[in-house]
Amino acid sequence: MSESTIDLTGLTIAVLGGTGPQGRGLARRFAQAGLNVVLGSRTTEKGEAAAKELSEAIGKSVAGADNAGASEQGDIVLVVVPWDGHGELLKSLAPQLAGKIVVDCVNPLGFDKQGAYALHVEEGSATQQAFGLLPESRVVGAFHNVSAVLLEDPEVTSIETDVLVLGDDREATDTVQALASAIPGVRGVYGGRVRNAHQVEALTANLISANRRYKAHAGIRITDV
Predict the structure, then answer these.
(1) Does 47 fall in a domain?
(2) Are 47 and 19 in contact (CB under 8 A)?
(3) What would the pLDDT profile of 23-82 be if each residue is shown by its tens digit?
(4) Domain interval for residue 204
(5) Selection from 161, 167, 155 nearest residue 180 by Cα
(6) Would you say residue 220 lies in a domain?
(7) Which of 14, 92, 140, 183 is close enough to 167 for a disulfide, judged by CB 3.0 to 4.6 Å?
(8) Would you say 134 and 79 are in contact if contact means Cβ atoms under 8 Å apart?
(9) What CA–CA distance (Å, rounded) separates 51 from 69?
(10) Count of domains observed in the chain
């Protein structure tokens, strides 16, 4: 089965860290595409408040919960949380995430006077860390390089970028490619196995540098596919 034949109707997309700019932006786009979305946060109250605000902003129903509740409800669960605490959170949610497609969107980055740079990760990348912590889940890496500013901007109707999707499970990567392509202008492109996630996560530091230099919201395009 290819991503073009996958029907996402009826699936629930949970976004852990859905109250931050990136998570909130992805949730906005998925809900606008007609998908069922639940926002996860550290507390139920915060998740429900963010979901109510987003629902009113876009005229679509979005649910809210704490991260554990969102994990239980989601068929596809996006991890869009700060790198600091990433491992601890996933370890605590392993039971709720068992059997689910878990999409790690986290970029382990540091910032200093010279700008953004990729951090060393013992496991190799955030996606590989998730892969090791969630042996009962179908871990995929994706959505690392999409501008949160563009995702959240209601005036932007099409986001012209590709999303590199990484994973060892062909059906899971096809499904996440279809999810990416549900956002107008976005195309999901297979980018290799989990072991290749580091350079995709690290590329975000280069894009941040380009954005600062050119005052833009740069993404990536893969040619000839």
Answers:
(1) yes
(2) yes
(3) 999 999 999 999 999 999 999 999 999 999 999 999 999 999 999 999 999 999 999 999
(4) 3-214
(5) 161
(6) no
(7) 140
(8) no
(9) 14
(10) 1
Q: Within a domain: residue 187?
A: yes
Q: Residue 76: which CATH number?
A: 3.40.50.720
CA distances from 16 to 31, 39, 210, 213 (A): 15, 7, 28, 31
Tokens describing residue 77: 């669960």
Q: Is 68 left (phi over 0), alpha (psi -120 to 50) or beta?
A: alpha
Tokens at 35, concatenated: 């998908």
Residue 35's identity, in one-letter code, is: L
In the structure encoding, which two tokens stand for residue 206, read together?
């280069």
Task: Retrieve residue 132's tokens.
Answer: 């090791």
Distance between CA atoms of residues 54 and 127, nearest Å: 28
Place of tokens 């790690």: 104
Q: Which residue type, as a one-letter code, is found at position 145?
A: N
Contact present, 99 and 172 (Cβ < 8 Å): no
* 71 domain residue, yes or no: yes
Nearest one of 91, 50, 45, 49 to 71, comparing CA atoms? 91
List, for residues 109-128, the tens digit of each pLDDT value: 999 999 999 999 999 999 99
Kindly report the three-state secondary structure assignment for every residue of 38-91: EEEECCHHHHHHHHHHHHHHHCCCCEEEEHHHHHHHCCEEEECCCCCCHHHHHH
Partnered with residue 141 across adjacent β-strands are 104, 166
Q: What is the pTM of this model?
A: 0.97
